[in-house]
Design a protein that fits this description.
By secondary structure, this protein is α+β, with helices and mostly antiparallel strands. It contains 5 helices and 10 strands; from the N terminus they run ααααββββαββββββ. Helix 2 packs antiparallel against helix 3 (55-72).
């Protein structure tokens, strides 16, 4: 191999090493930003975000985190975000019942309490009506040694009603919470939120509660 070929091979090798180094740097940066954002969103770190990037980004991440947590898991209060989401659901044409979280799937831990889901009812008819609602367990096959009656007792605030709800009016949002025993099995229960208008069932969505 003459000197020209050797120089060419060395040039190719240097170019290859430079490309590999550049790719490694980019992968490192991506991993760094991924870990940083994951830490901030899932675990906090707003002061660090504020220090490095300013209050606007810190506030934005905080709001995103709040919406993310409020929208995908059990809720413990009817806050402004929950009320806003319920109103958005009612904005859909013909919707009589709004449930939040919209996924109707919540996760709770053994021994956890005072968390669940929120809902509201709107009278979409032309006349004032009486509405009744109840929450009861309908499928507990995934949970050993638990029957429907016991699982239904774990739900609080899921039974009630309102008389003479005017056309277009909405029921003040209700919060249904669960009391999960310390020795509850790790499983998923299915509940039904049944709504009646003037004695007739009009809605009966399923609510899935997973005990982790």
């Amino acid at each position: 191999m003459d000197s020209a070929e050797q120089e060419f091979q060395q040039l190719i090798e240097k170019r290859k090493q430079a490309i590999e180094l550049d790719v490694a740097k980019k992968v490192y940066k991506i991993r760094f930003w991924y870990v940083l954002i994951e830490y901030i969103i899932m675990g906090g770190g707003y002061s660090m975000l504020w220090y490095f990037f300013g209050w606007k980004l810190a506030l934005g991440i905080f709001l995103v985190q709040k919406i993310f947590r409020s929208g995908t898991n059990a809720v413990d209060s009817i806050d402004a975000e929950v009320q806003s989401q319920i109103q958005k659901l009612f904005a859909e044409e013909g919707r009589e019942l709004a449930v939040y979280p919209t996924s109707r799937r919540i996760s709770l831990k053994q021994g956890e309490s005072d968390k669940g889901f929120a809902f509201s009812i709107r009278n979409t008819g032309r006349n004032a009506s009486t509405f009744e609602y109840k929450t009861e367990a309908t499928d507990v096959r995934d949970c050993l040694n638990i029957d429907k009656e016991e699982a239904t007792r774990w739900a609080l605030g899921g039974t009630g009603g309102i008389q003479n709800l005017a056309p277009g009016a909405t029921l003040e949002a209700r919060l249904v919470t669960f009391i999960i025993p310390d020795n509850a099995p790790l499983c998923t229960l299915e509940y039904t939120l049944e709504v009646k208008r003037d004695g007739q069932v009009t809605s009966a969505p399923n609510i899935f509660v997973t005990i982790k």
